[in-house]
Structure to design on (1020 residues):
């Protein structure tokens, strides 16, 4: 009985214990039931991503290669070069040998004499006081004919041979030929050379004539007329004194691209210079006059270029004698002999120059010149701007197309971090103007980035002795773009980048050198806060 | 001025986002239905010797029935869910109006450095056991499916806060351990236990394993560092994924266009593939100190599967640093190319996955149990159980206190309380009831799953029907445990 009671007590104890434990915990399904009324979830992670990691040289920054010829000197200094070139008219147009024509008459009497010999002068006439020593023909025809109508009517024939001693054909053989009353002589002079050797521009033709036939000399003596000419003359080479000839070389203008994008500014170059190079293939001294030499700024204001070196004509030498056919003459216009410093301070957008020349400026007849048919004069002008100087408030701007309409909507804010490691001795303030172009082509300014914090780039420090960079400088800038600004970014069709540049310590008129080895490290990263509202419907 | 409101995702309209309640359902599923699922938990069941399957937790503990046989397919069904990281109440908080909202920071604060979630399933095809003198013999053929998704704390922080969180602290997001493990294998076990002395009982279970399917993230070392200076991204990856599946994943290029439907023959081949052998052993013992006190210890699933059939390996070892695009990429369109795409292609090329077909071995996650019990009377037993599981080089402990009440051999019940993954809301319950030779049983480690689902991180149910015989020979020695 007692054991039975004990067993029942055990049963009860076990069941009570189990029920008691379960009773400690009541049901709570509120979390499951509450799912029907779950609040929206705002998912807002902040993501940091790198956008740009670039190291840029001067060419990358200013896109120099497209517009200018850039040279690096031995010092590694960058030099911008803007070039222009003019060509003179070719020699064949500048110095022309006109057609030559001469006639003479001889009297013959076949009843007394049937053979005749005589020398006749052929004078080559020019417009001025040229005294030639030779002409080498590229083209030309020597024509000689004769007329003697009465002699023919009385039953005679006339046969004539001739030889020109100083006139050699392309085989180096003196020119000879024959003609009669019916068949004139015509000699192709291509490749022939005529030597004058007489300082009078003439040569002798040795004629020998024979009269044949059984005619009746009733009307003797007879007049026989000779016509001799040289036509279609194109010379290959012409030597001798060609007299003074004045001629226009040409004119052109050279664009100075570095100033083309500048709105305003003051750029001071320490050592700008202009190189004039004359390549003369006339075998003669030439005096060049650089006329109308001026610079023109963006407002079309002209700044004359003048200086001691420009007061007198620039005399250039020509090649001494064939086969030399070119002589290069150079002259440099720099801060010592011109006002080029002043000119460049005016930020010219182009330099205009016009050149005239005078061959044989001294006019000495004993001078031996030569001209080839393609002789000419080429004048190159190179405006050299070594990037050594200073910049004060130089404003540049560029417009870039934007297409960022695919920026996701789920962005609450975006923070740009710009870290510029500047190896250039240039400070820069940058503003980025977001604009929208409507269908009528009108621009609307949407927003401006970096407006409150424009000084993105600090100049590297410069050694005052060498004017070269001592060490780069790092500038970090944070730019927080609000939701509105992000919206402007998406709507913008274009972005105008406005850069205001000045060089290190320009306030003290310190100059800096821009070397090719300088680099600017550009790192741009972005922290983006997302804002995605997840609705539970 | 136009006001721009935060972007709103209408879940009903968007398929690209997780859909409304489905997020919650998914989370619940991840917590409850997903599990690291490495076999049965054996917390409440450990001391329920009236149920033959209790011996799977400790082969040294002999079941009370002198003979049992399982009904094929229904003798032991186990579904287990486990989430080491968080419970529903860690994800959802209530505001002043008592409305629920997703509290992602609460979720993060609840997570440990390494977390997993998974599910497992076990079904006995055949099981039987019998006592012979001091010995107990048993055998079983079981189908086991185990899945696990590992997610490190940093991964969730990265998802919720973004990489800026790590950058501000100048630390790397350590994503190692992110990955999926899946194993499907068949276990053929032979158990033996013996009463070696009056006090000591010990035994073992040898298990021959037939691997059928596997996805194994053998290495998943992934660090993402965001440099505060310029937000440069440095990704270090050392990944090795092994698979043994009825489908060929390689080549990965163009995988999205392939059809992976299995034919009946392929499915048959999959289920009868004996090319992936394995072996495991369970060891256990029980010691009766005196009439009131006893202790037990066991080691389960100490073994491996060697995968050699239909094996594919995908390896990636690289270090990738992305510091931004060249400036020209934003403006240079001379060639009418997309410079961004070119850069992205080069980035993708950096991650060149090496595809091989090398055999590999996976270890079963071993479990260790140490327990002590106090018999108040023959009906009342109180026990403490320490359980630890080794997985991926890490040890996951839990503790259980149980009260076992068995008034008669034909009926027993157990009430347990467990601390699992620092979750103190695990109240377990189990019972068995014999109706003649037919035994019904059911055991759960967390009954609160239905009562207070927001607190649940672990849930499982183990139930089945056995045919048992409690008949004992008169001259047999006393069973190792009676109450």
């Amino acid at each position: 009985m007692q054991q039975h009671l004990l067993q029942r007590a055990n049963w009860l104890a076990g069941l009570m214990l189990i029920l008691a434990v379960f009773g400690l915990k009541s049901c709570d399904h509120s979390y499951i039931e509450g799912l029907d009324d779950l609040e929206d979830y705002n998912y807002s992670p902040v993501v940091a991503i790198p956008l740009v990691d670039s190291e840029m040289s001067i060419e990358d920054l200013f896109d120099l290669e497209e517009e200018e010829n850039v040279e690096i000197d031995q010092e590694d200094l960058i030099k911008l070069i803007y070039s222009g070139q003019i060509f003179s008219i070719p020699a064949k147009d500048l110095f022309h040998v006109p057609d030559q024509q001469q006639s003479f008459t001889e009297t013959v009497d076949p009843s007394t004499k049937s053979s005749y010999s005589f020398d006749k002068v052929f004078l080559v006439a020019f417009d001025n006081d040229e005294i030639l020593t030779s002409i080498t023909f590229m083209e030309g025809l020597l024509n000689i004919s004769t007329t003697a109508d009465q002699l023919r009517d009385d039953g005679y024939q006339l046969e004539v041979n001739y030889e020109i001693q100083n006139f050699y054909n392309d085989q180096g053989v003196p020119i000879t030929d024959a003609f009669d009353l019916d068949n004139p002589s015509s000699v192709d002079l291509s490749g022939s050379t005529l030597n004058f050797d007489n300082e009078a521009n003439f040569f002798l033709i040795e004629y020998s004539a024979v009269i044949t036939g059984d005619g009746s000399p009733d009307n003797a003596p007879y007049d026989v007329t000779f016509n001799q000419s040289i036509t279609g003359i194109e010379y290959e080479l012409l030597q001798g004194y060609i007299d003074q000839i004045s001629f226009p070389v040409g004119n052109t203008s050279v664009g100075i691209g570095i100033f083309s994008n500048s709105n305003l500014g003051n750029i001071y170059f320490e050592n700008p210079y202009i190189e004039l190079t004359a390549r003369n293939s006339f075998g003669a001294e030439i005096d060049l006059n650089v006329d109308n030499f001026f610079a023109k700024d963006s407002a079309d204001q002209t700044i004359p270029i003048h200086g001691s070196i420009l007061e007198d004509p620039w005399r250039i030498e020509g090649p001494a004698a064939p086969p030399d056919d070119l002589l290069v003459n150079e002259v440099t216009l720099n801060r010592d002999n011109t006002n080029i410093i002043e000119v460049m301070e005016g930020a010219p957008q182009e330099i205009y120059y016009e050149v005239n020349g005078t061959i044989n400026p001294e006019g000495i007849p004993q001078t031996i010149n030569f001209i080839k048919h393609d002789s000419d004069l080429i004048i190159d002008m190179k405006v050299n701007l070594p990037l050594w100087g200073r910049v004060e408030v130089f404003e540049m701007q560029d417009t870039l197309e934007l297409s960022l309409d695919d920026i996701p909507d789920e962005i609450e804010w975006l923070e740009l971090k710009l870290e510029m490691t500047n190896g250039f001795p240039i400070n820069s303030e940058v503003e980025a103007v977001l604009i929208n172009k409507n269908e009528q082509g009108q621009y609307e300014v949407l927003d401006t980035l970096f407006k409150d914090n424009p000084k993105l780039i600090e100049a590297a420090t410069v050694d005052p002795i060498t004017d070269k960079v001592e060490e780069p400088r790092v500038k970090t800038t944070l730019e927080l773009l609000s939701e509105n600004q992000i919206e402007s970014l998406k709507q913008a069709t274009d972005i105008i980048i406005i850069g205001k540049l000045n060089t290190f310590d320009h306030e003290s008129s310190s100059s800096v050198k821009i070397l090719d080895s300088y680099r600017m490290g550009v790192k741009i990263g972005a922290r983006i806060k997302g804002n995605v509202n997840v609705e539970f419907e | 001025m136009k006001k721009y409101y935060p972007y709103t995702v209408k879940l009903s309209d968007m398929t690209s986002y997780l859909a409304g309640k489905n997020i919650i359902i998914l989370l619940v599923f991840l917590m409850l239905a997903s599990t690291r699922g490495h076999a049965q938990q054996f917390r409440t069941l450990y001391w329920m010797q009236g149920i033959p399957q209790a011996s799977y937790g400790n082969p040294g503990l002999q079941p009370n029935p002198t003979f049992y046989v399982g009904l094929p397919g229904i003798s032991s069904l186990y579904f287990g869910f486990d989430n080491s990281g968080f419970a529903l109440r860690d994800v959802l908080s209530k505001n002043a109006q008592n409305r629920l909202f997703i509290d992602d920071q609460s979720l993060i604060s609840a997570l440990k450095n390494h977390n997993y979630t998974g599910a497992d399933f076990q079904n006995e095809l055949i099981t039987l056991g019998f006592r012979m003198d001091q010995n107990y013999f048993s055998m079983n053929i079981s189908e086991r499916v185990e899945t696990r998704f590992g997610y490190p704390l940093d991964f969730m922080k990265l998802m919720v806060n973004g990489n800026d969180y790590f950058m501000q602290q100048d630390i790397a997001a350590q994503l190692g351990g992110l990955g999926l493990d899946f194993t499907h294998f068949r276990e053929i076990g032979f158990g033996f236990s013996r009463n070696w002395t009056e006090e000591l009982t010990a035994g073992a279970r040898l298990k021959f394993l037939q691997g059928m399917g596997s996805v194994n993230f053998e290495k998943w070392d992934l660090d993402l560092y965001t440099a505060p200076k310029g937000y440069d991204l440095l990704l270090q990856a050392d990944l090795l994924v092994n698979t043994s599946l009825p489908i060929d994943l390689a080549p990965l290029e163009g995988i999205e266009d392939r059809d992976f439907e299995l034919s009946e023959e392929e499915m048959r081949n999959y289920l009868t593939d004996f090319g992936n052998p394995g072996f495991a052993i369970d060891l256990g013992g029980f010691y009766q100190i005196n009439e009131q006190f006893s202790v037990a210890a066991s080691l389960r699933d100490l073994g491996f599967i060697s995968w050699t059939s239909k094996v594919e390996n995908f390896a990636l070892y690289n270090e990738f640093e992305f510091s931004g695009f060249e400036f020209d990429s934003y403006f240079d369109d001379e060639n009418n190319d997309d410079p961004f795409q070119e850069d992205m292609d080069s980035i993708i090329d950096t991650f060149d996955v090496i595809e091989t077909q090398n055999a590999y071995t996976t270890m079963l996650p071993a479990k260790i149990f140490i327990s002590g019990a106090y018999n108040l009377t023959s009906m009342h037993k109180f026990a403490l159980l320490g359980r630890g599981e080794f997985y991926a080089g890490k040890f996951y402990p839990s503790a259980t206190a149980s009260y076992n009440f068995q008034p008669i051999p034909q009926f027993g019940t157990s009430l347990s309380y467990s601390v699992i993954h620092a979750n103190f809301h695990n109240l377990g319950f189990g019972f068995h009831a014999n109706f003649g030779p037919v035994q019904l049983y059911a055991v759960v480690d967390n009954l609160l799953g239905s009562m207070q689902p927001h607190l649940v991180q672990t849930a499982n149910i183990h139930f089945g029907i056995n045919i048992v015989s409690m008949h004992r020979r008169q001259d047999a020695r006393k069973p190792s445990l009676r109450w």
Summary: Chain B touches chain A through 66 residues (CB under 8 Å). The CA atoms of residues 172 and 225 of chain B lie 4 Å apart. Helices of chain B lie at 20-33, 88-91, 104-110, 153-161, 164-169, 264-271, 339-350, 448-451.
